[in-house]
Amino acid sequence: MLTLYGYWRSSAAYRVRIALNLKGLAYRQVPVHLVRDGGEQHGEAYQALNPQGLVPLLVDEENGGAPIAQSLAIIEYLEEIFPVPAILPADPVERAQVRALALHLACDVHPLNNLRVLQYLGRELGVDDAAKNAWYRHWVAAGLAAVEQGLAAYGDTFSLGTRPGYLEACLIPQVYNARRFDCDLDAYPRILALTARCEALEAFRHAAPDAQPDAQ
Ligand SMILES: N[C@@H](CCC(=O)N[C@@H](CS)C(=O)NCC(=O)O)C(=O)O
């Protein structure tokens, strides 16, 4: 049994839910409330599982049950253990290009806008909400502009041709975040079109934040 510790609005957990669904894997969810009581991710029970204090976290009972943190480590683990259907391209160059776009979102954009970073800006540095939103939108715009250029390679389809995969698992949660913070996305027609194609698919609909059992 696969168990995913996550939070409905966590875009990193959303990536993993998409990957699990694209692979058709059944999984159990354990919600970790990131806000209530200061955040369950900081509590003793969760810290014992994941000292990084972040979601998602995956536990695969069939494979020893050792907790695996970090969404991309989890997704790559799933790709290794459940290789069919693959979510990365077979060609090494194409695979590296997909990873490069996904990593740009996951490593260069998302961490700057994560909950604890925004909390630090507000609580420790006294940054007001307007300035925090400007910060947020600045980094999203920089990241999405680069990804928009990168998507030119994929035409009007998906990163795997007829179907979405790793790239879309990272992109669609970032778009969800951007919309949540009212970022203007008009400058990214390829991203919007790809997002619409993905959002029509069951794997993405079932992974969406509002469809999660802990959604509020
Ligand atoms: N690089 C990590 C990022 C994980 C992450 O930032 N998770 C957020 C939710 S999207 C979180 O747990 N935030 C809790 C906090 O900031 O206190 C990954 O890809 O898993």
TrEMBL record:
<protein>
    <submittedName>
        <fullName>Maleylacetoacetate isomerase</fullName>
    </submittedName>
</protein>
<dbReference type="GO" id="GO:0005737">
    <property type="term" value="C:cytoplasm"/>
</dbReference>
<dbReference type="InterPro" id="IPR004045">
    <property type="entry name" value="Glutathione_S-Trfase_N"/>
</dbReference>
<dbReference type="InterPro" id="IPR034330">
    <property type="entry name" value="GST_Zeta_C"/>
</dbReference>
<dbReference type="GO" id="GO:0006559">
    <property type="term" value="P:L-phenylalanine catabolic process"/>
</dbReference>
<dbReference type="InterPro" id="IPR036249">
    <property type="entry name" value="Thioredoxin-like_sf"/>
</dbReference>
<dbReference type="InterPro" id="IPR040079">
    <property type="entry name" value="Glutathione_S-Trfase"/>
</dbReference>
<dbReference type="InterPro" id="IPR034333">
    <property type="entry name" value="GST_Zeta_N"/>
</dbReference>
<dbReference type="GO" id="GO:0016034">
    <property type="term" value="F:maleylacetoacetate isomerase activity"/>
</dbReference>
<feature type="domain" description="GST C-terminal">
    <location>
        <begin position="91"/>
        <end position="216"/>
    </location>
</feature>
<dbReference type="GO" id="GO:0004364">
    <property type="term" value="F:glutathione transferase activity"/>
</dbReference>
<dbReference type="InterPro" id="IPR036282">
    <property type="entry name" value="Glutathione-S-Trfase_C_sf"/>
</dbReference>
<dbReference type="InterPro" id="IPR010987">
    <property type="entry name" value="Glutathione-S-Trfase_C-like"/>
</dbReference>
<feature type="domain" description="GST N-terminal">
    <location>
        <begin position="1"/>
        <end position="86"/>
    </location>
</feature>
<keyword id="KW-0413">Isomerase</keyword>
<comment type="similarity">
    <text>Belongs to the GST superfamily. Zeta family.</text>
</comment>
<dbReference type="InterPro" id="IPR005955">
    <property type="entry name" value="GST_Zeta"/>
</dbReference>
<dbReference type="Pfam" id="PF13417">
    <property type="entry name" value="GST_N_3"/>
</dbReference>
<dbReference type="GO" id="GO:0006749">
    <property type="term" value="P:glutathione metabolic process"/>
</dbReference>
